[in-house]
Amino acid sequence: MSESSDQKVIDAAPTTHAKLAAWVQEIAELTKPDRVYWVDGTQEENDRLTAELVETGTLKRLTDPSFPNSFAAFSDPKDVARVEERTFICSEDEKDAGFTNNWENPVKMKSMLTGLFDGAMRGRTMYVIPFVMGPLDAEQPQYGVEITDSAYVVASMRIMALIGDKVLRQIEAEDAFFVPALHSVGAPLAPGQQDVAWPCNEDKWIVHFPEERSIWSYGSGYGGNALLGKKCYALRIASVMARDEGWLAEHMLILKLTNPEGKSYNIAGAFPSACGKTNLALLDPTIEGWKAETLGDDINWMRIGKDGELRGVNPEYGLFGVAPGTGWSNNPNAMNAITKGNSIFTNVALTDEGGVWWEGMTDEVPAHLTDWLGNDWTPESGRVAAHPNSRFCTPIDQVDMLSQEYYSPDGVEIHAILFGGRRKTTIPLVTQARSWAHGIFMGSTLSSETTAAAAGAVGVVRRDPMAMLPFIGYNAGDYLKHWDSIESKANPARLPKIFLVNWFRRDADGGFAWPGFGDNSRVLKWAIDRIEGKAEAVETPIGFVPTGDSIDLTGLDMTPADVEAAVVVDKDEWATELASIQEWYAKFGEALPASLRAELEGLKERLGA
Ligand SMILES: Nc1nc2c(ncn2[C@@H]2O[C@H](COP(=O)(O)OP(=O)(O)OP(=O)(O)O)[C@@H](O)[C@H]2O)c(=O)[nH]1
Ligand SMILES: O=C([O-])CC(=O)C(=O)O
Ligand SMILES: [Mn+2]
């Protein structure tokens, strides 16, 4: 790019925000795109960009009228999930990244990345996306600007966040701080070079500079690696802001439940990726008289309200949900939202009617599909048609059960917190914590079998504190201290009650010990009744579990004995678990809060170990 065309970029910056104009200019000079384009966020613009993406082969327009105004994308088979080994927290001091994060010296990292980004956008358009996470009318709106060379990212960001002119005008009016989030697929085009449908680079870097509150992402176009408002900003960077400002940025769903008497409760739930947040957030209760409403399905920003209560806000505008396992029989609310259209599907299978399909969507399996790799597929193929981490990206306001309070700028009071993981054994269906500190202990020792949401082996048990292991933007010991400190900052009488849940425990025959999905409403009913002092429980060494007949089984083909089996605390399993927890805690060293050390001692004593 010549000097004069660089100059054109500078002159064209349609913003009065000096820092933003300067940053865009600096990045344009570094990455050397053919064009710089400021995203306005309008429907016309989106129609144009998606039409271009269809033209270039990145998107396929769905022609089945069940999926109006929707598109399918197919990624490079090597770019299908978050890449945790390639994710870095580059704090100035290595100690501030802690043992759960990859770290590199920020000056060294910047200089390496600057080399990678030099010319990285050649032959492409550089898009500038002003966005806000959470309500634009929040007391302190959380702004960001993503620069990307992927139009697929622009179209997806438009679903996941409020973007464009409206946000830019407010950033300018307030001369506000914004998180600079730089993204490139890392695939510059030489003059005349033919583009591919999913450009990316084998070399991937997802890098966060917490002190500067900035993000540099290189080489991937997929999900949390590329839609930088989500995991990179709303969790990793926001967790650092939250530590500094006394709030919490968490990987949680938020669900509002109203009992037959008309009393409402807001429940937040932290489960690791692909462990049931979106499904619970769109719960269809199977018990009479209970109503569920959605507030959020992946991220919860919690602040302490003026009466000392914890208040949660969902900072996202869309769902980026795991497709496989989301179906008409177990999650009709999600399916209804998806089939209203305006969605982008990635790595699902295509039907012969020009629609999409994935394992579990319908009970009847189509006779013929084109799988996510573009191959012919039949039920006899012996392989999955959709990638296990294939996703639907759908506007949240298409969810019929969306709560009006979703739009409330100061969120909702949180009455209960669930920590949950995917464990075949050991962890009961539900356990109530003995106290706030014990609840933090449960969260800090949360464990789950790994899933396809991140690259790497699937099914390995790993500790995942508060389901935030891949998302804590600072030292995990300091993170637990921060959680511990909430008790003294909040009104103790208004603190949420904490429960550990496990929808994935297996029975003696290897099947699920609990039907899950809509029937999870029965477990939530027990939890709410516990808050009200109405439900029976048994005290075990690990906390309070339901008695066999305290869970409402009306209409279910289950007996109280089945419930007892689903909540049993097995001595041998817990001996193994305790050893594993001790091993986990040892990794924190001095950084572990004293209250959690005391909780561990208490558990040991109660287990007679
Ligand atoms: N057995 C069982 N499976 C469930 C239940 N809830 C969800 N699942 C399955 O778990 C998988 C992932 O569920 P999601 O709700 O998409 O998980 P998530 O936590 O929102 O995932 P991320 O978007 O990656 O953070 C799907 O395949 C579901 O079918 C349940 O209650 N029981
Ligand atoms: O970030 C992503 O790619 C999807 C997601 O919600 C998760 O993995 O928790
Ligand atoms: Mn998630």
Low-confidence stretches: 1-10
**Which architecture of the largest domain per CATH?**
Alpha-Beta Complex
Query: Number of folding domains?
Result: 3
Coarse structural class: alpha+beta
User: What would CATH call the class of the largest domain?
Assistant: Alpha Beta
Which fold name is given in CATH as the topology of the largest domain? Answer: Phosphoenolpyruvate Carboxykinase, domain 3
Overall pLDDT metric: 96
**Taking Cα atoms only, what radius of gyration do you get, to the nearest Å?**
24 Å
Measured as a percent range, the helix fraction is 25-40%
Count of β-strands: 31
Describe the structure.
Its main location: cytoplasm. It comes from Paeniglutamicibacter psychrophenolicus. The active site is at residue 275. The structure is a single chain. The protein has 609 residues and is of the alpha+beta class. It has three domains: 3-56 and 82-246, Phosphoenolpyruvate Carboxykinase, domain 1; 249-316 and 405-607, Phosphoenolpyruvate Carboxykinase, domain 3; 318-398, Beta Complex (Phosphoenolpyruvate Carboxykinase, domain 2), CATH 2.170.8. Helices cover 28% and strands 21% of the residues. It is built from 16 helices and 31 strands. Strands 1, 4, 5, 6, 7, 8, 9 and 10 form an eight-stranded mixed β-sheet that branches. A six-stranded mixed β-sheet has the order 14-12-13-25-29-26, with helices on both faces. Strand 12 (253-258) and strand 13 form a beta hairpin. Helix 11 runs antiparallel to helix 12 and helix 11 (436-444) packs across helix 16 (594-606). 52% of the residues are buried. Bound molecules: guanosine-5'-triphosphate, oxaloacetate ion (OAA) and manganese (II) ion (MN). Residues 82, 223-224, 230-231, 273, 298, 320, 453 line the site of oxaloacetate ion (OAA).
